[in-house]
Amino acid sequence: MYYYIVNPAAGGAQNKALQEKLRSRLDQLGIRGEWVKTTAPGEATNLAAAAAAKGHTTIVAVGGDDTVNEVVNGVTEHEGLAVGIIPLGSTNRLATQLGITSWQQACEVLAARRLTSYSLIAAGQKYFLSTLTLGFETDLDKNVDTTATGWRARVGQLRAGWGHARNYQTLRCRINVDDQFKLDCSVFSLSIANQKFLNPLADNRLVVALSDHPGRQLQLGNYVWQMLHSRIGRGTNPATASFAEDAATTRFLAQRVVIETEPVTGIMVDGKVAGRTPIAIRLTDRHVRFITEKVVADFKDAVGPRSK
Amino acid sequence: MARRDDVLGVTGAETVIGAGVTIEGSLISEADISIDGTMHGGDIKTTGDLTIGVNAKIKANIWALNISVAGELDGSIIAEGEATIRETGRVTGDITSAGLAIVSGGIFSGRSIVHRQRELDLPRPDDTEPERRPPVKIRRL
């Protein structure tokens, strides 16, 4: 039975009107279930845990990334569950990564019930699924308000972001990778994602990508633009917005990394501040099965070696 | 075909160490590695190809399928396939490989041992010849 956890505050006033349409569509598809609304931040975790304990097999987060992460943190002890997403939040990066871009499509995806299992990533005591960032990106959210819409607001955001990027001091960073080797480098931006989110054929492994301060102004401008674009939910995943083609970019796969920075800095998980350095980040053996749109055949078969 | 959003390059070289990054320890992988940074000590082992970039300064022993050196390497190389020293490359150490190419300008200081392709693979049990040991002299007390 489907259990829908709705964040009524997600996505603003226009989404309230959508909820009737949404329920009607779910009725048509024959997947209408229990429908509960959250009343405070963090409540979705308790609701999801209670639903899992009651024996619900499918829990659907209706909201944005925060709602999804709260639901995931509530079902970490119940691996047989399926988690679905109806993206109605102001930021829907997780849904986008799973190939879900609208609530209408999300309903079809839920009905089709195509499941993919993802390992959870632990950052300290908190679990997350997709992307952790630190450095410029994390500071960008503190310094630039990306909630405003309209072209004037966008121009203002780009100008503020550009000014912030030009003056940003890189962090001195030391990373212990799987207790095998240590990296010492200066970091402009660092992101950690689950490789499987980028390609469902790949194994669950952490992809750590970091870049030094981009020297050329064109690159810097491009970077700021991509960051802002991702903040308004239309662009790419922040992890993919690093300078992969640039010689200064470093990336590697890992199971566990310990990150220390000088000075100490905040980290952001799926767009929300979630802790400070030093921090240990590891891929756990806990899995969440997501109802996803991604079709495996779309991806290249040769994605590198599978871990043994 | 790889998706356009596969910018992180999970379909390409698995490990890329950029210029300005210093590594301590051993780098072990089952896919391609590209290093343009600095490495002190340790080993680099991969079943894929290894590319040492023009900015790299590596002090390590390396094992890989094919190895290309455009930077500085102080250590021995064992390549199952070919080892190449590029124009800007400088290798101080022994090279064991199926083939060795040194491009004009490349510097190599050490011994070179060229083996047949796949010779470094472990022999299969049915291919192995009985071990020939020298006769042992037994002295009775």
How does the SSE layout of this entry go?
The complex is a heterodimer of chains A (308) and B (141).
Chain A: E1 2-6, H1 14-29, E2 34-37, H2 43-54, E3 58-63, H3 65-74, E4 82-87, H4 93-97, H5 103-112, E5 115-123, E6 126-128, E7 131-135, H6 136-143, H7 151-167, E8 171-177, E9 181-187, E10 189-194, H8 195-198, E11 206-211, H9 217-231, E12 250-254, E13 256-262, E14 266-269, E15 272-276, E16 279-291
Parallel strand pairs in A: 1-2, 1-3, 3-4, 4-16
Antiparallel strand pairs in A: 5-6, 5-16, 7-10, 7-14, 8-9, 8-13, 10-11, 11-12, 13-16, 14-15
Helix pairs in contact in A: 1-5, 2-3, 7-9
Chain B: E1 15-17, E2 22-25, E3 27-29, E4 33-35, E5 38-46, E6 50-52, E7 57-64, E8 67-69, E9 72-74, E10 77-79, E11 82-85, E12 90-92, E13 95-97, E14 99-102, E15 107-109, E16 112-114
Parallel strand pairs in B: 1-4, 2-5, 3-5, 4-6, 5-7, 6-8, 7-9, 7-10, 8-11, 9-12, 10-13, 11-14, 12-15, 13-16
Can you describe this structure?
- The complex is a heterodimer of chains A (308) and B (141).
- By secondary structure, chain A is α+β, with helices and mostly antiparallel strands.
- Chain A contains 9 helices and 16 strands.
- In chain A, strand 14 and strand 15 form a beta hairpin.
- The two termini of chain A are 36 Å apart.
- Helix content of chain B is 0%, strand content 44%.
- Chain B has 141 residues and is mainly beta.
- The model of chain B is unreliable at 1-12 and 122-133 (pLDDT under 50).
- In chain B, strands 2, 3, 5, 7, 9, 10, 12, 13, 15 and 16 form a 10-stranded parallel sheet that branches. In chain B, strands 1-4-6-8-11-14 form a 6-stranded parallel sheet, with no helix packed on it.
- Chains A and B meet through strand 9, strand 11 and strand 12 of A and strand 1, strand 2 and strand 3 of B.
